[in-house]
Amino acid sequence: MSQEKPDSTDEQRLLLAQRLREAREYVGLSQEDVAAALGISRPAVTNIEAGTRKVEAVELDKLSQLYGKTVQYFLTGESQVQDTRVVFLARATHGLSDRDFEELGRFAEFLRSSGKSKRRGS
């Protein structure tokens, strides 16, 4: 008797889970950090990275932004040029309290709204 061929959907989900876990570890974020960014529980992140929970499209989009990789990379493994700014920020903010992280977000919003074009010429 021949062995059953693994379901390609399950295989794809496991590869996606592996890429997500590796990307999170690379940028130095904990599962708790990711859970907070997505607004889901840490066990949900654990299940995503184990391939036992499906990733919603909106979540995958947020993860791609958080990790500085394209959605295409997570789905296919196709590499792309990495935005080193995202990696820098992930490492620089690792370990900040929730309150500090929120303050950092407000400061970033302030910088965006206070005339980007003025700073470019400086």
TrEMBL record:
UniProt xrefs under CDD domains: HTH_XRE
InterPro entries reported in the protein's UniProt record: Cro/C1-type_HTH, Lambda_DNA-bd_dom_sf, Rad_response_metalloprotease
GO molecular function terms attached to this record: DNA binding
Domain HTH cro/C1-type: 20-74
UniProt cross-references to Pfam families, sorted A to Z: HTH_3 (PF01381)
SUPFAM superfamilies: lambda repressor-like DNA-binding domains (SSF47413)
Protein name: Transcriptional regulator
Native source species: Paraburkholderia dioscoreae
